[in-house]
Amino acid sequence: MTEFSFNLIPFKTIANYMINRQNVSFDVWIYNLAGNIAAFVPLGFLLPAAFQKVRSLKAVFVTVLFLIVSAEAAQLLTLRGVFDVDDIILNTIGSVIGYYIYKFLKEIW
Question: Which of 28, 83, 89, 103 could be stapled to 76 by a disulfide with Cβ–Cβ 3.0 to 4.6 Å?
Fold first, then answer.
């Protein structure tokens, strides 16, 4: 991708997809919303599974937020890709879901 764009307004992209769902194909909707969540579920699961210091929700949240903001900031600084604050929100939600999956599986094991 050689073009750069950005969104600094929280929930702007998410709201745009919801409001214009009739004009946005289902594939685009799934890829941009559900895909951004699903892609980070494994990180939220694997961090506490692999690292004892990252076994609380707060530790997972802070670690994941740092990683995601770093990746988005790299896009912003290099003017490559799309910097979108909504990606940070959706990726973090995915990681928190992954953390709760980890907690659930730990309880039943």
Answer: 83
Give pLDDT tens digits for 22-37: 888 888 888 889 999 9
Q: Are 21 and 36 in contact (CB under 8 A)?
A: no
Domains of the chain, by residue range, sit at 4-108
CB 76 within 8 A of CB 70: no
| 99 neighbors 57 (Cβ within 8 angstroms) | yes
Give the integer Cα–Cα distance in Å for 70 and 81. Answer: 14
Residue 2 has a pLDDT of: 57
Give the C-alpha separation, 7 to 46, whole Å: 29
Taking alpha carbons only, the member of 70, 88, 89, 87 closest to residue 78 is 70
